[in-house]
């Protein structure tokens, strides 16, 4: 009797796991044209508060979005920035083993996800970029396609495509991701990572934008599903 009950339990658990997998919605595979015009993103580019930066309106994230299709990861952004501050995107990809944090970043940035790992990072200042794939041992440069424009109000607008194969993704139909967008500065000699604005907002933003490194990212956006 105990053996029959054990077999029944194993079968039941297997059916429950299979049912959960079937109930998971597949990712939305959406292709956009990388031309600096975000109109084809439709509702999948999100608006951030226009006055929520710790560094004022000249260092502000206004729009952000992330999508993918069968071959590319797409990133959208609209922002203002001053000096050496950059629009930074940190991505955690399912099924890819990355780094615990961004400590291997060539420019010394110090961020980590509260849950998950860091697989891809890009920083752009609109007319240029640097991008890296992160593993447990190193950060390796990645080439992307970038298009940038400027709005009539002087905001920088970027659209980026990254080949998924260059990030270790082999099957986009099973991919999910989480991302955060940061108007980032550097790390100072006192161990503070400076950041003016986040999307989504993290809830711990302070008056001067200086945080004990590494900054722990608690809130992210996920890829849309069908």
The first-level CATH class name: Mainly Beta
Determine the mean pLDDT: 92
Order of helices and strands: HEEEEEEEEEEEEEEE
Q: How would a crystallographer describe the biggest sheet? A: 8 strands, antiparallel
Distance between the termini: 45 Å
Query: What proportion of the residues is helical, as a percent range?
Result: under 10%
- Based on CA atoms alone, the radius of gyration comes out at 20 Å
* Percent range for β-strand residues: 35-45%
Organism: Fervidobacterium gondwanense DSM 13020
Protein name: Carbohydrate family 9 binding domain-like
Secondary structure blueprint with pairings:
Layout: H1 2-23, E1 46-47, E2 60-68, E3 72-80, E4 86-93, E5 111-113, E6 120-124, E7 129-134, E8 139-141, E9 145-150, E10 156-163, E11 177-187, E12 192-199, E13 210-212, E14 215-217, E15 221-222
Question: Describe it for me?
Answer:
Helix content is about 10%, strand content about 40%. The N and C termini lie far apart (about 45 Å). The chain has one helix and 15 strands. The chain has about 230 residues and is mainly beta. The chain is globular. It has one domain: Immunoglobulin-like (Sandwich), CATH 2.60.40. This is Carbohydrate family 9 binding domain-like.
In short:
This is Carbohydrate family 9 binding domain-like. This protein is mostly beta strands.
